[in-house]
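[Discussion] Sanity-checking designs against the backbone

I'm trying to build intuition for which residues belong where. Below is a structure token string of 332 positions. I'd appreciate it if someone posts a full sequence so I can compare it with mine line by line.
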């Protein structure tokens, strides 16, 4: 048996004893080293995101292969897990839009995930990490892969003004990607601590509101990347793009929430708006960037917790100033 944090049903999450899973054909068994608590886990708990009762949550995780099953991945390999298993046969998969797969099976939502001592996982979706990597860092590959997809869409050019809204994990990684692209980068986030973190991880400017932004960039940004997932910031994003500019929305709003936009303004200023979903073909690049330190993830770790603490942490809002809490299922 093992310990695992299970979403029994909406509003009921517990750390319980369950059998250690047996890897099916094509699967490996992973001893989980680190599993990040994402806002989506809290949405799943609250019923704001469709869930499957009884599943073990956790979709941002990495660990060590302890049973290769019938695959060729060697035991002892450290891997990061791309949680999205596309079907490969639906019309979206066949046109290469795999993140829009109608039959996607997301580990940690539709099948048991990484808030557990062990996880049986498809070998084809595991990406190798170096054995000397800090075990906690592997948990950042998944959010980085999603951020990379959005930043690919935004296609920041060297010298452009890039505004990142929201100083959470996604925003702070977007800051680093934009800086690596040679952009002039501003982070807009309310808390002073996260502004400081942004400046320390590559932002050239950090502000707490639109007025402060306008003092530095009166005409707005060439590219605005919304990473807060709040109606007010989604509504604000096109207004903060300069005429002829681009917007990428990465933040997730609750289903059904409406946001005011002014089509006249978008048309006459020809603002391009993009929406970025999941991590199509970006997990390998993310693993490489975490492995070689291109993206600095250590400053994004706010605390580590045990599986016994995970259920309460998911059922509660993040602590003040928290960027990422990492569950360490097998002890530190
Ligand atoms: P997070 O930890 O909640 O970070 C969002 C940050 O936005 C907060 O830390 C907050 O910092 C800031 N914020 C909130 N309201 C704001 C406002 N009015 N003005 C400026 N900043 C504001 O979330 P995350 O993990 O980084 O994820 C960001 C978003 O991306 C979420 O909506 C998440 O669901 C989404 N996401 C999308 C994908 C995808 O595939 N598209 C993948 C993963 C995550 P302050 O307190 O400093 O303001």
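Best answer:
Here's mine. Compare freely.
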């Amino acid at each position: 048996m093992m310990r695992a944090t299970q979403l029994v049903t909406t509003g009921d999450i517990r750390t319980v004893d369950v059998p250690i899973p047996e890897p099916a054909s094509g699967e490996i068994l992973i001893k989980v080293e680190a599993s990040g608590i994402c806002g989506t886990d809290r949405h799943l708990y609250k019923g704001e995101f469709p869930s499957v009762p009884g599943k073990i949550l956790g979709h941002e995780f990495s660990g060590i292969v302890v049973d290769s099953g019938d695959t060729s991945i060697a035991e002892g390999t450290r891997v990061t897990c791309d949680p999205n298993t596309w079907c490969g046969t639906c019309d979206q998969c066949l046109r290469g839009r795999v993140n829009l797969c109608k039959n996607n099976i997301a580990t940690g939502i539709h099948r048991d995930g990484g808030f557990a001592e062990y996880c049986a996982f498809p070998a084809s979706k595991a990406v190798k990490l170096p054995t000397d990597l800090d075990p906690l860092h592997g948990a950042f590959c998944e959010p980085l892969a999603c951020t990379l997809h959005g930043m690919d869409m935004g296609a920041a050019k060297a010298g452009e003004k890039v505004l990142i809204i929201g100083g959470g994990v996604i925003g702070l990684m977007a800051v680093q990607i934009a800086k690596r692209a040679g952009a002039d980068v501003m982070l807009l986030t309310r808390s002073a601590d996260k502004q400081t973190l942004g400046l320390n991880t590559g932002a050239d400017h950090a502000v707490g509101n639109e007025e402060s932004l306008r003092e530095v960039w009166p005409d707005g940004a060439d590219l605005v990347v919304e990473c807060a997932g709040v109606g007010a910031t989604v509504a604000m994003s096109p207004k903060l793009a300069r005429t002829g500019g681009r917007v990428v929305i990465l933040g997730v709003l609750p289903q059904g929430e409406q946001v005011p936009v002014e089509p006249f303004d978008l048309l006459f200023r020809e603002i391009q708006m993009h929406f970025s979903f999941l991590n199509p073909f970006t997990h390998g690049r993310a693993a490489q960037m975490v492995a070689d330190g291109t993206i600095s993830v250590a400053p994004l770790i706010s605390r580590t917790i045990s599986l016994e603490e995970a259920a309460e942490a998911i059922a509660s809002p993040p602590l003040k100033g928290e960027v990422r809490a990492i569950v360490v299922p097998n002890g530190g």
